[in-house]
């Protein structure tokens, strides 16, 4: 079971969203439509509130939490990559948080931003829309180019497609013992790393 009540508060999750069975969704968490929550993600609404707007993906091993009375919000089509930690911050619409990035309390990341992997975003950091953000501590490096935003948007659509695939076909199974028995192709769209 992935869902837990605390102090009488239960998570709210739209039926069109997929939550992996190993994820932990606790307390004051609201998950909108067509969201994907990956394996071992932890959304802890045991102090503040966690809000995922429509189309958000929170990938494997991510953590969302906040101080008492705070809120962590991921706006529409937000893309939170593997192992990221969000604590009491706001992630703008159609923004990507890179792998193993940490974003701290009262940080506000604008819409259509891309945050590089392994970045550390300090408390209270503010980033305007369409910013490339990177570093430890993170800084705004430049504006997001059109082809970069298009790549990010397509990557998020891949995860929205994964939500649909999981709702249709994800289930526990016994492994096969012969490679020749395995179906060769996944029903996944093509997507490649961005080129500079």
From TrEMBL:
InterPro entries in alphabetical order: Hexapep (IPR001451), Transf_Hexapept/Carb_Anhydrase (IPR050484), Trimer_LpxA-like_sf (IPR011004)
Classification via Pfam families: Hexapep
PANTHER family: DYNACTIN SUBUNIT P25 (PTHR13061), GAMMA CARBONIC ANHYDRASE-LIKE 1, MITOCHONDRIAL-RELATED (PTHR13061:SF29)
Protein name: Phenylacetic acid degradation protein PaaY
Source organism: Marinicella pacifica
């Amino acid at each position: 079971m992935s869902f837990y009540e605390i102090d009488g508060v239960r998570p709210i999750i739209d039926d069109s969203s997929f939550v992996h069975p190993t994820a932990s969704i606790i307390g004051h968490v609201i998950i909108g439509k067509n969201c994907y929550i990956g394996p071992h993600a932890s959304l802890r609404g045991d102090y503040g509130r966690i809000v995922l707007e429509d189309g958000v993906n929170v990938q494997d091993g991510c953590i969302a939490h906040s101080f008492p009375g705070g809120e962590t919000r991921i706006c529409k089509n937000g893309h939170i990559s593997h192992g990221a930690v969000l604590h009491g911050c706001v992630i703008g619409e159609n923004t990507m948080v890179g792998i193993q990035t940490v974003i701290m309390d009262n940080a506000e990341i604008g819409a259509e931003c891309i945050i590089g992997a392994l970045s550390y975003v300090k408390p209270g950091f503010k980033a305007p829309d369409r910013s490339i953000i990177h570093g430890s501590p993170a800084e705004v490096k430049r504006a997001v180019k059109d082809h970069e935003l298009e790549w990010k948007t397509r990557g998020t659509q891949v995860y929205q497609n994964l939500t649909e695939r999981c709702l249709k076909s994800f289930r526990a199974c016994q492994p096969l013992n012969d490679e020749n028995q395995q179906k060769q192709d996944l029903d996944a769209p093509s997507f490649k790393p961005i080129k500079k």
